[in-house]
């Protein structure tokens, strides 16, 4: 298996003329694909349900512990076991029909969130949440491997942007719905989880309407995957990464970007509550700023496709630089602006990395690559996030004088976690030996 570019085979029933007409990568050309529309429609519902469930889980833990850092740690531990199982999930998503994987993972999360309101005690709730995250990784692996078969290669950045927007664009809507549900008092958690389960159930029905032939590899490619063991598949994947300098940079950059993400996951709420001395309104405002930044990042990604690998590294460096600025200059106004920039940098890093992998890996390696990528980033984020929360707790909320700055534990951790990806991006922003 080699790292040849995908896209030479197209979904059954798609004519060569239609492919040529859609080479422009325009929104109308991409959206004309029925199966792509169905996939994105299902993700809108699933994304809304996922954010509702996440907000409900955070609220539940906060209600039981009244600790922002503990809430962040629990959120990080939700994804830890799923990350460890990434390699096994890679083999499963590569060997099963992708539509079956998408259906099983969507329906599974519908069942989990539908049952959660009936569960008492925090331990079984977190256990079921962990199971839902396992399904999420398998779903994302199959989805990201599928997109190159639904649209031509030149349209991948736009298609990825639409796919990401359908999955993550529901964040502010989900946050708003959860805020409205707060009017029902403590029943808002039960109501949010039940609504999340219903959203996933509807998403499952939509996924069921997708044409399976549009998602899966050819018979020859599937036969090859069935006869290649897990160890051999990862050996081939490692060989491709070693021979491609762009892919190596994506791997290294993504790893360092995860350090910034891990710090934000576990300490974001603590930063708002203890460093900025702000309330839930400020935290919601940061989420909205992030979403506007995501839209800006999508636009930037479309206009700079020829330098995608450089834009990816700029995104990695920006994620780190933003954390350093937030650490040195704590302010709600600056925080809102940094949330906006963080959203744009997130898209450049995450979406840019996905597009690079899709373009430079053939179909037989994509499922494994995306399972490893999604699970590996989670491992790094969890390890960094838990360590960051522990260090911040040890340093405490009392400001420490460092040069001309007075910084509490969260600020110090943000500064250190931000310097790592910033320095890594600077060291790798040199002319590459290969071009995308």
The averaged pLDDT comes out at: 75
Largest beta-sheet characterization:
2 strands, antiparallel
- Looking at the structure, the CATH topology is Growth Hormone, Chain: A
- In CATH, the architecture is Up-down Bundle
Give Rg in angstroms.
Answer: 21 Å
Low-confidence stretches: 1-25, 432-436
Please give a structural write-up.
- The protein is an all-alpha fold and 436 residues long.
- It has one domain: MFS general substrate transporter like domains (Growth Hormone, Chain: A, Up-down Bundle), CATH 1.20.1250.20.
- The chain is 78% helix and 1% strand.
- It contains 19 helices and two strands.
- Strand 1 (400-402) and strand 2 form a beta hairpin.
- Helix 18 (363-395) packs antiparallel against helix 19.
- The longest helix has 33 residues, at 363-395.
- The radius of gyration is 21 Å and the shape is globular.
Keywords:
436 residues, mainly alpha, Growth Hormone, Chain: A, two-stranded antiparallel ribbon, 19 helices, 2 strands, 1% strand, globular, disordered N terminus
Quick gist of this model?
With 436 residues, the protein is mainly alpha-helical. It contains 19 helices and 2 strands.
Topology:
Elements lengths: L15 H6 L5 H5 L2 H32 L2 H10 L2 H5 L1 H10 L2 H18 L6 H29 L5 H13 L2 H11 L5 H21 L11 H9 L2 H14 L1 H31 L4 H24 L4 H21 L3 H29 L2 H33 L4 E3 L2 E3 L1 H20 L8
Antiparallel strand pairs: 1-2
Helix pairs in contact: 3-4, 3-8, 3-9, 3-10, 3-11, 4-14, 4-18, 6-8, 6-18, 7-8, 7-11, 8-18, 9-15, 9-17, 13-14, 14-16, 14-17, 14-18, 14-19, 15-17, 16-17, 16-19, 18-19
